[in-house]
Amino acid sequence: MRKHLITILSLFIFPFLLIAFSYPKTPIYKDPSYSIDRRVQDLLQRMTAEEKVGQLSTLLGWEMYNKTNNDIQISQKFKEAVKTQHIGMLWATLRADPWTKKTLETGLMPIEAAKATNALQKFMVDSTRLGIPLLLSEECPHGHMAIGTTVFPTAIGQASTWNPILIQQMAQTIAKEARATGSHVGYGPILDLSRDPRWSRLEETYGEDQVLNGKMGVAMVKGFQGNDLTSGYNIISTLKHFTAYGIPEGGHNGGSVTIGRRELEQAYLLPFHQAVKAGALSVMTAYNSIDGVPCSANPWLLKNVLRDNWGFKGFVVSDLGSISGLVGSHHVAATPAEAAAQAINAGLDADLSGYGYGPALLQALQEGLVTEKVLDVAVSKVLYQKFALGLFENPYVKVSKVKSSVRTDEHITLARNVARESIILLKNSNQTLPLRKNLNSIAVIGPNANNIYNQLGDYTAPQSEENIVTVLEGITNKVGTSTKVNYIKGCDIRDTTNTNIEEAVEAARKADVAVVVLGGSSARDFKTSYQETGAAQVTAAQDALSDMESGEGFDRSTLDLLGKQLALLKAIQKTGTPVVLVTIKGRPLNLNWAQHNVAAIIDAWYPGQEGGNAIADVLFGDYNPAGRLTVSVPKSVGQLPMYYNYKNPAKHDYVEIDSKPLYNFGYGLSYTTFAYTDLQLKTIEKDNDFETQVVFRLKNVGKYDGDEVAQLYVRDEVSSVVSPITQLKDFQRIHLKAGEEKEISFLLTADDLKLLNPQMKWVTEKGAFKIMVGSSSDNIKLTTDLATTQDYYL
């Protein structure tokens, strides 16, 4: 009987024992030995609909911690968000600025930031059902937008270096600083072509040209992402803004865009395509609509182009509030649920706001507007990147490594190098520059001569004053005590009620040279009110007038120097003292009077924390400037839009002025001179491609060592569709010692000369092309002809 009982029991117990021993103790999604795809699918099947929707919500992160007496704790708001919304992502957790109301006192220093993100992750891992770590996104366009980080020049300055290798090094540094404090995604680069300087965000772009933008974008993506996202030094790159955001009608930020598909694909999409090919893992949709379809609900853009044609494997995120904007701004959806359905069905995976999806997406699911399959696809894109980053194995950062990773001496030196390479010499009559270091006295004048935030640009966190070097400090450091440096502000950027022009004139009159630092400001302040999107709420008549005239939301109707700045410059010039104008700004400004009357002009854009040292290096000849413009600078807003690669036919003059810009795309001077000679083409034809080497010699024939930016342009002489009058195809920044000569080579293939023909097919057509090499778009030194003998379909 006992034997029979054991036999019966074994029949029941053994299968359960077999199941217990064969079933993995660790869930598949937590086991790194499985593929990421397998782990994603395992996790998805364990999740409720509410948990899936929560993974797509990116809430405002700076509300999720409390800081008291240097003690960092998670906030009750964070706990509630996790409990009720099952959130999976946060944005701008470490951001500090007047919009977030985080200051140097209430925000987080780098070590505190690491402690905060660790605390948030610990709660997610230990106190939620599935233990899914957070994906933390941060603004990283010219440095991690957090307190105590390294602040580099804004993007328009980065592009002015014409040096993608340097920009990739910068991006690596930004990624290292962001990841060290617990961030995983960096918003940037911005790849919008900017062809209207009235638009408030030109400073965030690389300028007006698709080839230059593409090369800079690729450099940023490679620098951010590296080759191993689990390295602890790399972050995911989010491309902004998809697409054509930089040409809004009237310069109104976020306004509608009128553009044909051919121009969209040949110009505006090209930088994004290049960055996607380089491996970018995230894309942000733009606020605007194109041909009546909002970018955040555009299946042609997000599915056909981005995924089907380009093979994009990452996730798409909305810009802040752009899903709800389908209801409130574009009026293409009647309810939040309809807006959520339009967005996710179009291929928009994640919501930056927390209110675009959330309950609205759950309602859309319940109403049958969205299928669970569509939801799963979006969630899987986000989860995949969490696994790829190694967050399930290593959700925390090492606080002990923060100090050696953020704002190091090496990073500060790099910031100075990027700033120096970005500086553009616009004018230098009678060799006014470089200045002698043994001058008796220098007058440093102007609202941007000693204002740390006016030289940092938008999307910059508060920084300790000792971390920023102004122009006044840079000049003082350079000349030492032997030269008297007298600083007078003179006026504000905008406010006309507080001026001391007479005192500035007196200082200039007594000086050997006057360095006048004017321009604009994107410095956010607590006088300004902000929209939910973070853009400034601008009105024509504001009671509290800030210096800010550029930066998100500050669109302009003119490009004139505001306030009393031009009056100050004219008064200084009238003294007879040699004047050097330095402009620090975020957009091209009207420099017509200065160009005709001032001896020397330097354009520094927003040069970042080392701007003062970099500008002083250029002023006194310790660095030979070689920055080049990446936007055309108009003489009048009546010429807008103005960009060098406009389509045929050629422009004609106006009644009042000619049609030429004040400064052309690619323009910039040097303290030395370069000679171009011996242009040759060497072509090898293949079955459906060709390779043409464009070879020439470049010699420094001046007395200073320096860099030259050699630029290759092409014109399609006859084409089946109207083509640009000229188009940049490649460039190199080359250092040559005085008297040194080098052979320079560019490579052209069929892909470089392609167009979309009338049948919307990509083809390089049989025919003649003009090959042009020079130092700017309007200073061509060498030309020759290239003839293709067949059509090349691509």
Automatic annotation (TrEMBL):
Keyword terms: Hydrolase
Signal peptide: none
Statement: the UniProt record of this protein carries the keyword Hydrolase: yes
UniProt xrefs under Gene3D superfamilies: Glycoside hydrolase family 3 C-terminal domain, Glycoside hydrolase, family 3, N-terminal domain, Immunoglobulins
GO terms classed as biological process: glucan catabolic process
Domain Fibronectin type III-like: 708-777
Listed SMART domains: Fn3_like (SM01217)
GO molecular function terms noted in the UniProt entry: beta-glucosidase activity
InterPro entries for the chain: Cellulose_Degrad_GH3 (IPR051915), Fn3-like (IPR026891), GH (IPR017853), Glyco_hydro_3_C (IPR002772), Glyco_hydro_3_C_sf (IPR036881), Glyco_hydro_3_N (IPR001764), Glyco_hydro_3_N_sf (IPR036962), Ig-like_fold (IPR013783)
Family note: Belongs to the glycosyl hydrolase 3 family.
Name of the featured protein: Beta-glucosidase
Organism: Olivibacter domesticus
Lineage: Bacteria, Pseudomonadati, Bacteroidota, Sphingobacteriia, Sphingobacteriales
